[in-house]
Amino acid sequence: MRAGILRSPSPLPGFGLSFGIMMTVLSIVVLLPIGALLGRGLMIGPADLWEMLNSRRIWSALSLSFRAALIASLFNLVFGLMLAWVLVRYRFWGRRFIDAAVDLPFALPTAVAGIALTALYAPNGVFGQALAPLGLQVAYTEVGIWVALVFIGLPFVVRTVQPVIEELEADLEEVSATLGARRAYTLRRVILPTLTPALLTGFALALARSVGEYGSVIFIAGNIPNLTEIAPLLIVIRLEEYNYDAAAAIGIAMLIISFAMLLAINAIQTWSRRRIGLV
Amino acid sequence: MYRTIQIGGHTLAQGIFLRSLGDGRIEIDAGHARLSGHPVATPRSSETVSFHSAFRKALTGGHLRGGLLAGLTGLVLAFGGTTPAAAQDSIEILNVSYDPTREFYREYNELFNAWWTAQGNAPVTIRQSHGGAGAQARAVIDGLEATVVTLALSADIDAISERTGLFPADWQSRLPHNSSPYTSTIVFLVREGNPRGIEDWDDLVADGVQVITPNPKTSGGARWNFLAAWAYAERNDLDPAEFVGAMYRNVPVLDTGARGSTTTFTQRGIGDVLLAWENEAFLALAELGEDAFDIVVPSVSILAEPPVTLVDGNITSDAQRAAAEAYLQHLYSPEAQALALSHYYRAWDTSQAAPEDAARFPEVELVTIADFGGWPVVQPEYFGEGRIFDQIYEE
């Protein structure tokens, strides 16, 4: 009889083997690199870590990275939901094409996306020229970073919400209507609560992806210290100085903040599930 | 007629036979380009060939398993290195270089191999690696087995020596001219007709002028830009830190590499002036048209010396050492110098260069890195964390 943590929690056979494979792969792919980063941090020590992090330039880079990721993900939350809704609920010419196009940001190398967006939004680009008379500049400002992050984060929200909308039974809406609810009320009290867990998951994924995004952002950002310099670029700069410790310090700071944010989103998710009684 | 030819070392190409060049080489149409080289008579003479044919078999073979096996065998043959054939007759050089030398070394490798085989040696397989100078140096430090390094500034090569001990610290005295077979300088590229009237460094700090230059932290070339501006301020009794700070406050986009800045300036239309390597500026003129940009030479600039050296610790055989040493020394030969000149580098020996290549470079007063005390002093003092460059952005 096997004892301890490997005791099969279910009558289904194969737990030991599949658990072993899962742990091996997870260790190699995820846990080891993160462990190495944290190990480096432990070797440096918390006091020195703080010393390395406590400068205006690093704080502006970190706050820019998280602020831009948050703004872009919020935008994607709204726009992605609408896109998924339209794709599921309506039949129109070109629907399949748009459905396939949603995945493009996954497939495209991020550098290509960055260069393409920069070419469009630069002052001499198609959009850039149109926006210039209005006094708006997108490329090489923080807004440019938002645009790049919206682009790479969009499919995460759409692809997590879409299947849930597909499962959503029209009956519920009809019942709601026959009981006298107006459309906005049905949307607010019937549809959105059901979608909230999936929306939050998509939001969290998009956020996590955007925070660490490097390839597309450096082309459109302008990279001016304190203004448009993202935290991942600062890591690269520290590496160029052969200052591996300072690079690790910024990496650890990003890891901790991301972890806290994802934890908070998970907590909201659990709370909202309980509230609508889906658990 | 479909023929296989050998270009340079072991690189093969196939295409339709076009014509015989007389010196034993033939020209073929490889689909995307016309290539010339020596025809390969027996396509099983070297391991590279067997890799190619095995790979072709893998691609075209009907049976997936057979193809996979052939492909794997080819990979083992190509990368195993322990096969007798590979150990005896194949000498390999890995040249780890920086970005803008891509075109130059592509041609130099052919030139070197032609000369090397004419001396009665077996052809050398030369592999190239290009990237930002700092990233390339880090790759060598982290274990990339470079045979020779040819980087943008000696600070990057110093870093390799310091951190790995693969070659002695006085490496720069091993070859003539500070181990720099070709040099360049920093000039201004402005838009056609020079609408902002930019003539010298002091025009770059004027209100509203936008200057494009990469980040000296991530770009080796940008450090030369920084120092050239610094030298100007010192000569003209200006406070150099203030002057250079004012210049960087006029920089709207700080790219990570020299090519990125060139793209921002030429393609995106950002900025009034690009601080560029002279060879990059000439290249931009040649590629994008003389009527789009002008080159402005400032009153003082800096002699940019991109040095080369042998990575002794990565040498595996005497034959490889001989080939690698010859590879670097031959950079100083009149024909290689002529090639460098034709790629817009300021080389030393103009004896075999085309007259227009040799006469291209305007006279300019050049300071050298030695005037600043050398890279070991400059690198930490100006570009170290929290030092002069970082202070510009701390205010």
UniProtKB/TrEMBL annotation, chain A:
Superkingdom of source: Bacteria
For this protein, the record's SUPFAM superfamilies field holds:
MetI-like
Report the subcellular localization: Cell membrane
* Membrane-crossing segments per the record: 12-38, 58-88, 100-122, 134-158, 190-208, 246-268
Q: Which Pfam families match?
A: BPD_transp_1
Q: Which residues form the ABC transmembrane type-1 domain?
A: 62-265
Q: Which UniProt keywords apply?
A: Membrane, Sulfate transport, Transmembrane, Transmembrane helix, Transport
Q: How is the protein disposed in the membrane?
A: Multi-pass membrane protein
Q: InterPro entries attached here?
A: CysT_permease, MetI-like, MetI-like_sf, Sulph_transpt2
Q: What is its main location?
A: membrane
* Subunit and partners: The complex is composed of two ATP-binding proteins (CysA), two transmembrane proteins (CysT and CysW) and a solute-binding protein (CysP).
Q: Briefly state the protein's biological role.
A: Part of the ABC transporter complex (TC 3.A.1.6.1) involved in sulfate/thiosulfate import. Part of the ABC transporter complex CysAWTP (TC 3.A.1.6.1) involved in sulfate/thiosulfate import. Probably responsible for the translocation of the substrate across the membrane.
Question: Belongs to which family?
Answer: Belongs to the binding-protein-dependent transport system permease family. CysTW subfamily.
The entry's protein name is Sulfate transport system permease protein CysT
Higher taxonomy? Bacteria, Pseudomonadati, Pseudomonadota, Alphaproteobacteria, Rhodobacterales
